[in-house]
Amino acid sequence: MRNSLQSQWLEPEAPTYGWLDHPGQRLRVLLLIFLLPSLAIGYRLVQLQVYRQAEFTHVFEATTTRIVEIPARNGRILASDGSLLAVDEENFELWVHYRWLEEPPHPDWLKRQANSRLSRRQRRDDKQVATMTTTLLNERRQLWERIAHVTGVTPEELDQARQSVQTRIERMKQAVLEKQIQQQPVTEQPTRSIQPTRSIAEESSPHAVTAWLDWGQKLWQEFQHELTTPPPRAENGPLILAEELEPQRVLDTLPKAAADEILAHPELYPGLEVRVRHHRTYPARQVASHLLGVRTPLREEEALERTKQWPQGDPLDYRTGDAIGRSGLELAYDAQLRGLRGLKRLTLDRRGQIVEEVMTREVRHGADLYLSLDVEVQRTAEALLEQALLPDVIDAPGDSSTNDVDNPQKPTRLTSPQGGSVVVIDVRTGQVIAAASAPGYDANVLTNPSATEWAQLTGDVRRPLYQRVTRMALAPGSTFKPLTAIAGLEAGMKAQSAIECAGYLDQPQRDRCLIFRHYGVGHGSTDLSDALCQSCNVYFFKLARMLGPSPLVEQARQFGFGQLTGIDLPFEQAGHLPSPQTNSAREPWYPGDTLGLAIGQSRLQVTPLQMARFMAAIANGGELLTPRLKTDQGPLLVTSFAETSGETTRTNVRKPSLAPQTLKEVRHGLYRVVNDAQGTAYKTVRLKEVEICGKTGTAEAGSGVADHAWFAGYAPASPPRYAIVVVLEHGGSGGKEAGPMAREVIRRMHQLGLIPSGSLAKNED
Q1: Which residue ranges are recorded for the region named Disordered (predicted)?
Q2: 3-state secondary structure of 215
Q3: Where does 535-580 have alpha helices with state H?
Q4: Check: CATH 3.40.50.10420 for 375-390+414-453+464-634+649-752?
Q5: Sign of the CA dihedral 457, 458, 463, 467?
Q6: Strand, helix or coil at 745?
Q7: 494: burial class by Cβ within 10 Å (0-12, 13-18, 19+)?
Q8: What is the pTM of this model?
Q9: Which of 45, 176, 272, 699 has a 20 to 30 Å separation from 88 between CA atoms?
Q10: Averaged pLDDT for residues 677-705
């Protein structure tokens, strides 16, 4: 060795050096041994910090997005005087963040809350952390005491509500955990193989060399895996549901004063939210319930149908549970009344804290709908109808005290009418002033009816849900005679031309005047004015026989019978206008059909609204109006109903061929019906304050069934302002039952200042 003692007398041998014998070489090797792992570690650090940083930090930087809905209010429906007929009432709900109601508090949440109130130095002090934790627990206790005080709910009830929410969420967590366990695959635990001790002979064999190489390769792979792979997370880590990071509803109904207090002092109520839910109510209850209709929650299957109808998105954003218009104006103007909810996108960090708020859609409240409806007139009409439907016994047969020659021998009625309707429209514009149907119902009941309430409504044989203004099609009886008169005058007949009435047409047993059945006499020589005044059937029978059916049918068609009026209400019925052209071989047209049509019988059926429009046309000079409930008054956001709900664009139609003298003669006859001592409505309809024009009608409904009672007219006589129609289904005499109701409605309109006074000096008693 180089360090051994050497003798100068010995012959030195040539030195032999190994590559590690030099100290410098050994230092280089040692440095390389330390440098290579350091380089590997450095390379790995650079790789993790620079190139693969996102793979490990995305968990901490990951955010979730949640869409929060801002409820919108549906538009109101208001009458002409501004009184509310339909409105969304605000219902406040109390929502509390789950961590603030959880008992006992979640330790991680409690720690984060405490740390958020401490500085970094204070967080290292366990005593200060414990003190802040105690403070937080006291704040939680005081928070619930404050909630109980401001809401008026007892602490016991609040504890019960909190426990109910916590039980529900814990049950959800347990179900998720059980499902995860069931879906987790069963894996075998890896076992390390222990290499047996090998002998020198075995280690020197070729197979031993190969085994050592394989073992070295596996050792290197394991080393590389341990160095480059992060440790796996524990499979039994805490499960956190989304509901644990969100507010939960604790109180369904919150007093407005309490809601204002919580919203005004958020620092005193951490973790609390006040949410608004709108509920449709009808303050007037039964008033105009048939016209208003109802809004009820959208069912799931209906929401799916809307999704199929609008695959790109429902333009009104209807979802399951949203209140949608089902009938009446709520349905007709649903697109205008519907409020569009706002949408806000919240970005949350992994702890559930809000880091960003973006309003993606502004809330849009529904537009208000203003009606031409007069609430007082509507209420009066409905009250009169309800009174008329009460069970009552009317006069015995043969009572002629009312001078009602339409039906002087009506049988004694021991039951009330099945239903009725009153319609009042402006003869100048077609605006509907009143449109009452009876029997009625409380619209609030239909928003969420109980089983008993629904059974009562649907089981009533009088059909209280039936909209009689636009759907009840009945024979009009003598109220149709003015149209027959118009057809005769337009065909060239002179109003002063007299027709002899013997009380019957051909035979005493049929086609008779009612005065003949009562007194056995006829009207004698009768002109058009007399025929309308005294409701002479024979006059119109002979007139129809001279004209034939075609002029009658044509004039009826031009005045809108057998057609929809175009009113802004859904499900309107057109009635039925029979004609020889539309009759089939199964139902041929007989000469008697022409006679029946002339007096409003046969197979003719009209609605109260059609008859009101007909009377308005007589009063305004022949203009056939399109009835309307909506008016343009008020701050409407949607000005065109046609743009939103597919409204018919039909406009008012003036009959160009109608001679002014024709309507003048008919109006004179209608004036005499009420204001002439021989008129059928003289004793039951005439008013001293207002001159009324009109026509009574008693339409036969079949043997064994009471007749339908009609009155149709307008007021005042000059200048006409409002057309009115009253009809009682199976109500009996038009002059005695329907006429007085029309008089009382007009009297109320006069009291309200809608109709000015008129002189009736010549007709005073």
Answers
A1: 180-205, 395-418
A2: helix
A3: 537-547, 549-558
A4: no
A5: positive
A6: helix
A7: exposed
A8: 0.74
A9: 272
A10: 90
